[in-house]
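ingest -> validate -> predict -> emit
validate: passed (alphabet ok, no gaps, 256 aa)
predict: started
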Amino acid sequence: MADKSQEDGPLLKVADVSFKYGSLNALSNITLEASPGQLIALVGRNGAGKSTLLKCIAGWTQATSGEVHILGQSIKQNERFVREHVVLVPDTPPFYDELTAFEHLQFNAQVHGWQDWEDEAEELLRKYGLHANRNAFPFAFSRGMRYKLALCMALLIEPKILLLDEPLGPLDPVSADDLWEELNGHRNDGMTILLSSHQLPQEAHPDRYVIMEQGEIIAQGSPDGLRKSLHIEGPLSLDALLRSAIKSRKAVKADA
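emit:
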């Protein structure tokens, strides 16, 4: 268990994390921190390293070098601790063919030793429009419904850190807006959320953007801070952020 001094520090600390697929540098010296109640959006082109970074934070993939700390504890020596506090929902969540939607929630609650979880499970299924399908099997669900079920499983155990890989891609615009509102509520309750996405609802306002390119962080900061540093005029879209950050990076390399 983390002591008080550890709890006073950042909830999540990623320090010089690198990861290689063979000779390919998928991540290069990634460093970032997150505090309780922050919502951070990872932005980058396909292959930028966003999914790999989320897997390293969740402990699904062991970094080639560097450290990830949760509440001051290295995830390398604390796999069970990490599973209690960190949940990753991948872009294509896996399910058991023989379990219904509700039985997946039951299984998740039992694995984590939760008691009196049924009412919360029912409420989550209602929130995400899955209650009428609670006794159906996920293999018959659409991609969006499968992602919603995975979100219900994640939120049921109330992790300190929620990692979402492309959560908005499978969702229709109305569901995407609803999800963002739901995530805002959890952020206000102190949950730390990192999500990767190629799109965000118009009214979405993360606390911080982390912009990645070729396995590196090329810019990060608050929306207002990045608007100023990247000289962005007009609406602050993900497209504008990414294009401006890549342009700035190329300019820096050209001057070097």
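The radius of gyration is 19 Å.
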